Amino acid sequence: MRGHRPQFLVSSCRALLQETKAQSLVRKYGTVSPVTVEPTPQSTVFDRALEANAPRNNWTKDEIKEIYDTPLMKLAFASGTVHRKFHNPASIQMCTLMNIKTGGCSEDCSYCAQSSKYQTGLKASKMVTVDSVLSAARIAKDNGSTRFCMGAAWRDMRGRKTNLKNIKEMVNGVREMGMEVCVTLGMIDLEQAKELKEAGLTAYNHNVDTSREHYPSVITTRTYDERLATIKNVRDAGLNVCTGGILGLGEKPSDHVGLIYTVATLPAHPESFPVNTLVPIKGTPLGDRIGNKETSPFDATLRTIATARMVMPRTIIRLAAGRTTLSEEQQVLCFMAGANAVFTGEKMLTTACNGWDEDRVIFDKWGLRPMESFEVEALRELVSSSAPLETQAERPLATVA
C-alpha cells in the first residue's frame, strides 16, 4: 500500500543501524592502508627557548646545560634566531671604559693588575678630575660611543663621600651629553646606589666573574653573596644591572653553565651581560700560571654567548676584555650568535682595547651600526607593542630621559 514501508525493510534498516553504530562508515579503496597518526613529540628545553616570546628566570642548571651542550652550529644558529626576535641584529652598542682611579685595591682577585697584593708594575693613583672625565667622554662620543663607563679600583664606597660627590658630577656631566652612563665602584649600599641614580646614572657594573662553585679559587677577599647583595642594591635603586663573567680562570664548562645560571635566575635578568676573556698579566697569580698560553678557546666564548642569548633573550651581551685576541670573523660570528655590544676606545682599564677606527672598518664591511643611546629601551617599547622588528630601523626611536 502506498505510503507504508514494508515491515521487512524497516527491520533491515534498524539492524543495519545497530550494526554500524560502533563502526566508522569509512569507505575503503583497494589496498590503501589506513593513515596512522603519529604522536606529537614533546618539545625540548632547547625548543621552548627558541620559541619563547618573553624572558623567564626560573631556569635550572640542567636546563641551561642542555642548551649549552647543543652542537655548536645548531646552537649558534638558534641563538641568532632568538637575537633577531628581540633585538635589531645590525645594532651594536659601543661603550668606552675609563679608569678613574687606578691601582691600590685591597682585594685579591687573582686576575687583576690593580690589586695591591701583587707586583705588576702598576702604580696606584688618586682619582682623576671631573674635567678630565668629561673631556674623555666627549672624545668617545665624537667617535661613536654612546655609553661611557667609569671604573675605580677599590673594594667598596665606605667613607668615600668626597669621591662619591665627584663621581656624581661626572655622571651628571656625561648624561647631559646625551650618553648612557655606567660605573663600577666595587660594593655599594642601597643609599649610595640611590644617590647615583638621582645623579643620572644608567647602569652599575658588578661582575660575579664565574660560577659560585669556582669563585673561591679566584677571589677570597669578597664572597659571592656579597657580590649578589650589591647587585640587589643596584636593582632596588632602580638602576640597570650590568653583571657578567670572565672565561679562562681555570674553570670547567660546568662553571660557564653555573655563571649563566646565577644571572639568569636573578629576580630580573641583567640589562647587560659582559663576556670577558682573561688577559694574563704578569705578576698576578693567574697571569704567572698561564703565561702566554691560550686562556680560553674561542668555541667556549661563542658557546657561552649563544647560551646566554637563548636563556636571557632581552639582555645586552657585551664582548668585553680579551676582544683584541679575536679575529674580525670571530667577532662577527659572536654578533650573529647574539652579542650586541663592545668596549671600544683607547684602553680598557689596564689592558688593550680595540680602537674606534678598527671597529668602524668592521662595522662598515659587515653592515653594522653603532647603537643609539637608550636604543634598547626604545626597542623594548616596540617589542611590547608587537611592532615588527623589521621596521625598527625605519622608525624614529623614542628618546628616554
Automatic annotation (TrEMBL):
Top-level taxon of the source organism: Eukaryota
Enzyme class, spelled out: transferase
GO MF annotation, one: biotin synthase activity
Positions contributing to [2Fe-2S] cluster binding: C149, C182, C242, R318
Cofactor(s) this protein requires: [2Fe-2S] cluster; [4Fe-4S] cluster
Keyword Ribosomal protein appears in the UniProt entry: no
Protein name as it appears in the record: biotin synthase
Source species of the chain: Hyaloscypha variabilis (strain UAMH 11265 / GT02V1 / F) (Meliniomyces variabilis)
Native organism taxonomy: Eukaryota, Fungi, Dikarya, Ascomycota, Pezizomycotina
